[in-house]
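Below is a typical protein record.
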Amino acid sequence: MRCRRAAGLSALALLAFGCGGGSDYYYVNEIKGEGDTVLLEFVYTCGLIDITWDGRFGGSPLLHADLAVKHDALGGDCDEDPRELTYDAGPMKQSFRAEYPAPTPLGLRVAPYEEEQGAICLSNLFDEGPFKGRPCK
């Protein structure tokens, strides 16, 4: 059974749904970071996770890059246990600045496993200090 998380459900409610069941499921709980490092927190996700970027920028009116999550699970249900993976956004930011001058902001979007869960976004990878993701608008 795949977890279908509606916004605002607590972790307890997620457990009641039986999240993580299914070998191909992943859930990005949070993204945050500072500088060139983006930290992605996954829950109900087991097995190998690969985070990639296709080298493109899109969106309007705000430009953003989309990260893709490729997931090879171990099979069976996965526990809620948070797992943190880092992504080096340095090359992405350098490529962006080669095309778009400062102070043009660069957002970041991480797609959900299922569309109804909603994507999570960072508004600007060039922010000074720490940044934290929010549900995309």
Notes: Strands lie at 27-34, 37-43, 48-53, 64-72, 83-88, 107-110, 120-122, 131-132, 134-135.
